[in-house]
Amino acid sequence: MKPSPIFVSAMLILTGLSSLAHGQSEAQRSKFEVGAQVTVLGIEDPQSLNDLFPRREVGVGGRISYNLNSYFALEAEVNLFPRNYRKVRTNFTGGRLTEGLFGLKAGIRRNKFGVFGKIRPGFMSSGRAEIAHFPTGRGPDPQNPFGFEDMRATQFALDLGGVLELYPSRRTILRFDVGDTIVRYPGIPFIHFPEGTLREKALYTNKVQFSAGFGFRF
Fold first, then answer.
1. Is the pLDDT of residue 2 over 90?
2. Which residues pair with 200 in a beta bridge?
3. Are 124 and 183 within 8 A, CB to CB?
4. How far apart are CA 63 and CA 76, in angstroms?
5. pTM of the prediction?
6. Mean per-residue pLDDT over the chain, rounded
7. Sequence-ordered list of residues with C-beta below 8 angstroms from that of 194, at least 6 positions apart, any chain
């Protein structure tokens, strides 16, 4: 007996709903990801002092992701760079670095691998920047006329780049990141010609950042 069009349509709808429910249950079982990574970041000082003293930091960090679906995910990542850098300190850089990035990952995910782009704004924070409270050198302390003080300095950062993920099993992830880390440094003093007046201007620096890590999804 030839099946009626209504029966065929109903079976197709039920099959589609079953597949959709199965896909949703798979996605629900893999909504969250947690991981750890090793990361390498070059530091570009806005006063170009790193041209004389190139600086590269190695750090470790953690990451948590929430998969909206197979194509989009929200991420939060924090990296700690343990070296207490003192060779070149300015009012923006020096000491140990902390980096926090929070944003969107978007791309294509297959059974064994995924390729994504990422845009993640956040911050870059230096634990022992050297701030001069008296830039003219007329402070009350003759031993410290510029009033230098160690302080934490935090700037806006933006990570733009790509991600390659490999899936050895349904629950495990190998992840490799390459990104351009852009940092905004506000209040850089410049002498404006021809008036010769002192003005402040924000500068942007960028350096490549590499990361490799391992994670779990559940």
1. no
2. 189
3. yes
4. 6
5. 0.77
6. 81
7. none
